[in-house]
Amino acid sequence: MARYTLIVGTRNWSSWSLRPFLALSAIGAPFETVDIRLRQKEAPTTREQILKHSPAGKVPVLKIEENGKTLTVWDSLAICETIADRHPEAGLWPADTGARAIARSYACEMHSGFPDVREQLSMDFVRKKPMPELREDTQAQVARIIAAWEEALTTYKGEYLFGKFSVADCMYAPVVSRFETYGVAVPPASRAYMDRIIALPGMEEWRKVSQKEVDAGLPSAMPPLR
Length: 226
Ligand SMILES: N[C@@H](CCC(=O)N[C@@H](CS)C(=O)NCC(=O)O)C(=O)O
Prior knowledge:
The protein is of the alpha+beta class. The chain has helices at residues 15-27, 46-51, 76-86, 97-112, 115-120, 136-156, 167-182, 188-198, 201-215; strands at residues 3-9, 31-36, 61-66, 69-74. A four-stranded mixed β-sheet has the order 2-1-3-4. It is globular, with a radius of gyration of 17 Å. Bound molecules: glutathione. Residues 9, 14, 16, 38, 46-47, 58-60, 75-77, 225 line the site of glutathione.
C-alpha cells in the first residue's frame, strides 16, 4: 500500500494546502502531514524547508512512497487530480462526463482566478474579522463565486456542488473559510453548502491545528512575502 505524506504550510493561512488535505481526508486512506511554518526568515527558512521536498519551492507537496520509490507531486490542483486518479472508488470527480467537465471548469476557475478575493479576504481560518471595504473587482469576484455555487447546487441538487463531494468542493473550501471569517452574506442554498463544508471532518481537523497555531501567537494576517 502506498504511503502518503502531505507537506502543508501554516494551517491558519495556507488556503492552497487545505485543498489536497480535504481530498486526502475524503478518501479515507491514512496519510501523514509535515507542517512548515510560512514566512520563517531565520534558518531554516520557509524556502529552505520547502526546497527539501520540492524544487518548485511552494506548498502543498504530496509524496507517494510505493514499491521503494517516491513520487513527488506539487501544486494543489495537481495533487487533488492525482488523488482522484489513484482512488476512483472515492468518486472525487462526477461520474457523468458532462458534469465532470463542468466540475473541472469550476476547479480551474478557482485555481487561476479570483485574485482580488485572495488579496482582500485572505484566509485566517479560525478568526472572525470585520469586512474590509471591497474594491469593485473584489465585489464582482465574490458575486461570481456565489452565482457559480447557486448554479451548481440548483443543477446537481446534492449536498455538495456536484452532488457528491468532489475536487470542486476541495478547491472552494478555502473560500468558504474566507466568507465565514469576513461574514460575507450569501443566499440560503450557499449558506447551507458552507455549513456542510465547515462541518467536514477534514475541516474540523484543520481547525484544531490552526487554533493551536493562533494560540501560540500566530499573527492575524500573513505578512507579505518580501
Ligand atoms: N499554485 C500553487 C500555489 C502554492 C502557493 O503559493 N503556496 C504558498 C503558501 S500558501 C507558498 O508555498 N509560498 C512559499 C512561501 O511562502 O515561501 C498551488 O496551488 O499549490
